[in-house]
Amino acid sequence: MTNLNSEAEQSIIAGIFIRPNVLKEIDISVDEFNDPKNKILYEILLEMFFGGTAIDYNTVFSELEKQGKLDKAGGKKYLFDISDATSTSAGIGYHVDTVRRSNIKNTLLDLCGRIENDLRAKISPEEIVNSSMAILHELGDGNLSGLTFSKKIWEWVSSTTGYFYVTECDKNLNIVTQRDKTNRRQVLHRLLKEEKIEKHGSKNGCFRKIENDFEVVNLDDIDEGELFDITLPFGVQKYIDVMPKDLIIFAGVTNVGKTAVMLDTCRVNMRRHACWYFSSEMGKRNCKMRLAKHETCKSWPFKFIDDFSNFEDIIQPNDLNFIDYLEETEGEAYRIPGMLAKIQRKLKNGIAIVALQKNPNTKSLTVDYAVGGHQTKSKAALFITVDPDYPGAIMRIVKAKNYKDENPNGYMIRFKIVQGINLIPQGIWQPEM
């Protein structure tokens, strides 16, 4: 660590003592501080400020003593000198940039040393290039630890619809340490200042993303009676109006029969609509083998695709789309509601029917949402869960948005699956007792 970097860190901390509200304006995390003393002091200042505690020499001294960190933070004299420094908060952004540039320089030096060690260890050039490019890509985006953290939180916030709780953010991003929670508070306060989010109602820790993108629609051009003609499992369409741009979701645990439901829905609609079946799990040979087991249908005029990247990029906006199933390949399930929103926005005169996974580690019958949380229901015009009910399965209507005369929300039906593709109803849609 250079003296210049340490002095810049001290200037940041001194500026906070002068004007604590500057913490709402700067974007630097605890982990970007190199000097252990400054790292502890900055973390304490964040905790106190976002916890509503006044910041001055005496209050910080008391907090350090209470947490047993006074000596590690440089002691009484270091705290006094830094809190009494003749600095200003006006140039704090410059000092943040100085710290960040120093971190980039140190990261590059470490990378050079690592490459040299890897070459001596005879690690393949391809592997060295791949690992190095990941680090350089992060630096190219300006994403060191603090900015990466901020970016992750903003990506999560961007994926939400309606309101969200900070507890959901912590759970989905695995924010568990007090340090990360303090950094999260700092990021959210900055988003508040930038008017990207706002507090929702009077509940603590509840926010909503500000949606200010819109498109003006000429209502005179809209056909009032325009519906999407579709047949759904066991005639559920008799209860609802399905409209262009609608999103229909079937959510269930693994091996409960979601694919059978999707294929059967494709079967009964493929002769009146152009149907596109995007499969992330079932390969072409598996699909062909399944179709051959259907008792009556021997011709399947739909388009099957099992090799693609982004779901929202391949959606056919004016056709009937099947996605079996929607997954987040990086393991970040919090992105799924945002992916659903992007798919829905891509639609024009067509619709999308999407299969989602439910968490197998929960009591399945009590869960009415998919992996990704309650937000997975928000964009759906129809949301149906599929749960095991030995020797068959059971469907439940969790959300029917545009229902006709009879409200089917809470209705259920039992069914069996024969040879992995033939659906046999065991009753009718009816309220669950």
Describe the structure.
The chain has 3 domains: 3-142, DNAb Helicase, Chain A; 152-214; 228-431, Rossmann fold, CATH 3.40.50. A hairpin with a 6-residue loop joins strand 2 and strand 3 (206-209). Mean pLDDT is 86; it is low at 141-145. Helix content is 38%, strand content 15%. With 433 residues, the protein is an alpha/beta fold. The chain has helices spanning 3-18, 36-50, 57-66, 75-83, 92-120, 125-140, 145-159, 166-172, 178-193, 258-267, 284-291, 311-314, 336-346, and strands at residues 163-165, 197-199, 206-209, 247-252, 275-279, 303-305, 320-324, 351-357, 382-389, 392-400, 411-418, 422-425, 430-431. Helix 7 packs across helix 9.
Write a brief structural summary:
Helix content is 38%, strand content 15%. With 433 residues, the chain is α/β, with parallel strands linked by helices.
CATH class annotation of the largest domain: Alpha Beta
Strand content: 15-25%
Helix content: 25-40%
Named CATH topology of the largest domain = Rossmann fold
Q: Outline the low-pLDDT stretches.
A: 141-145
Q: State the end-to-end CA separation.
A: 68 Å
Q: How much is the average pLDDT? A: 86
Number of strands: 13
The CATH H-level superfamily of the largest domain is: P-loop containing nucleotide triphosphate hydrolases
The geometry reads as elongated
Q: How many alpha or pi helices?
A: 13
The H/E string reads HHHHHHHEHHEEEHEHEHEHEEEEEE
CATH architecture of the largest domain: 3-Layer(aba) Sandwich
- Total of domains: 3
Q: Which class do the helix and strand fractions yield?
A: alpha/beta
Task: Specify Rg, calculated over alpha carbons.
Answer: 28 Å
> Major beta sheet, specifics?
10 strands, mixed
